[in-house]
Sequence to fold (481 residues):
Amino acid sequence: MTGSKRFDNYIGGEWVTATEYSTNINPSDLSDVIGEYAKADVAQVQTAIDAARAAFPAWSTSGIQARSDALDKVGSEILARKQELGTLLAREEGKTLPEAIGEVSRAGNIFKFFAGECLRLSGDYLPSVRPGVHVEVTREALGVVGLITPWNFPIAIPAWKIAPALAYGNCVVFKPADLVPGCAWALAEIIARAGFPAGVFNLVMGSGRVVGDAIVNSPKVDGISFTGSVSVGRQIAISCVSRQAKVQLEMGGKNPQVILDDADLKQAVELAVQSAFYSTGQRCTASSRLIVTAGIHDKFVEAMAERMRSIKVGHALQAGIDIGPVVSRAQLDQDLSYIDIARNEGARLVAGGSLVTCDTEGYFLAPALFADSTADMRISREEVFGPVANIIKVADYEAALAMANDTEFGLSAGIATTSLKYANHFKRHSQAGMVMVNLPTAGVDYHVPFGGRKGSSYGSREQGRYAQEFYTVVKTSYIGS
Fold:
């Protein structure tokens, strides 16, 4: 590992070395070292928070045109470099190159969207119930925000947190997932050259136990936006509420994809494959529960098994590959464990579930599909976060809806049907934050709200103009004549 390029943290407008660095390895090729990335200690995190605190008064009251120009510059550079950044993303996370380039493009568009949003921040000017008095309702920046992001979307999720935070006048302390620091560092390097004053944006890489805890528990941080596991999210909520900091959480999912008897079979199979297995199933919106009504069930199982035989697993940068590797050894072990759990519970393995040998050493797994599963099985209730899905047979639409809602989560839910009646009923009665009709459960736009219900999300929505609900606070001013 010696001789690898080192990448430092960005604190107070300067690149800062660390005493410890972590090695970033390509999951498609374990011999490919992407680089060594700084691991911040608690003192560096505090320095970053202090820098953000010092920069906040001027930045939060600065001209909106300067903010817009800087955000637009970031978005333009990301889009101009989408091939290069997409290759980096595919190397460190394992998405196929087309998917990775698509994610990078989304990140660029997010920055450009919020370049416009900071010019569109609106309020209200209202008459008072008292004569001679008027009321202004305005929005102001929250303050210093800590942004903690996961490994599965290493540039898009940072973008959809960082861009609105800066657009609305906040200062940022950003901690990316320790597993995928490369895209985060590349994004930080672009932001560092875009014209933001020192301290407005800070990058502190490292472990959640050190860097994340220091950010979450700092009394100088006004809000935390976190995307990650349920267990960590709940601990963050407790910490934030105890000190009255604002908190926004996006956590787990066990998303249902309902297939009704009247669905177009070919379309249903394709959207199920995309929902469950693309991006190696490593999406919080992935559908791992395929709920299929009795009349189409047997045909659907057969067609899914046939379709899965054509899925190509391999090196993320190889042309013609449908699915890249699992992101890490630990995640691969978890996926294999759940495959064993499903077998032991009595589910029938229809396709896949075995390791795949490629030209390079990596974490390659053939997507696994189970049938004959029941709602009480662990495979039906717990989030695997990998290319593992199971089919649950139900009698009719009413049973499918009940099964879809029978989960502690509520992020995304889909239905495949040609019935307008059932589609409309499902949209209204699905207990999920996002509903897809004849579309994969994974795949969302950047200009509309993202988020779920129940155990999947806590706090206000992310993305689009709804992002202002977290990153701003409302002020009401009364003006007498």
Q: What stands out?
A: Residues 255-437 form a domain with the Aldehyde Dehydrogenase; Chain A, domain 2 fold (CATH 3.40.309.10). The radius of gyration is 23 Å. Residues 6 and 36 are 5 Å apart (CA to CA).
